[in-house]
Amino acid sequence: MDRRQLLVTAVIGTLAGLFSGLFGVGGGVVMVPLLILWLGFGERQATATSLAAIVIIATAATITHGGYGTVHLIEGLVVGLPAIAGVLAGAAFQQRIPARQVSVLFAILLVAVAISMAIGTGDAEPTGSPSRDLQHILVAGLFGVAAGFISGLLGVGGGTLFVPGLVYVLGLAQVEAEATSLLAIIPVSLVGAWRQHRYGNLDLRKAVTMGSLAIPGALVGVVLANALPGRVLQIGFAALLIFVAQNLARRALQTSKDAKD
Fold it and tell me: How do the domains of the chain map onto residue ranges?
């Protein structure tokens, strides 16, 4: 890796880490498009590299959030364990069909969630004990499966679905949901990266380099997340979802256009 590539990798990693720590996402929403645009990665290579880097980023951010006492272990397992099955299915699905149709549908879903968060139908601040009855756990598990599937398919950590599930279904406050989402992201990204390695898509050296360079950004993001009001985080997360949705839709449309040319 030459000096220019290392610098670009550091910039991508820092941005991804900041987004991860601040919003409870893996950072793949930043890494995948920038790896493609700035470093010339192919779609599948970018997805695999992102997933492996997310393991490092999410681990650092989770440990830091743990110092603030905002990580909920049980709720993280409730969404994270079912997501492992989802990420295996998503990674396998990616090898067989174009992802653009799924990207468009996912973009629409993200816009709907963003609107819901922006108008404030979730709890921004702690409201007591999380919901742990069977119905809520099953619904949260479905969010986990969906998040894992999207993770394996698109190379993101799954936080864009983990966080809404933890807020709306299990009743966590925004910052708690973001911290717990990062915990759930670790095994999902690890399994997804392993699967991508089996498919021959992963450049482990580049992934480790980018993940390591992302750690300072992730730590800054965590500090900001715990300093800002919950409502500010909700609005910011909604804006992030809109950003992700428009990028997914644009990539899908561009892929479709290229296929016709």
Answer: 3-260
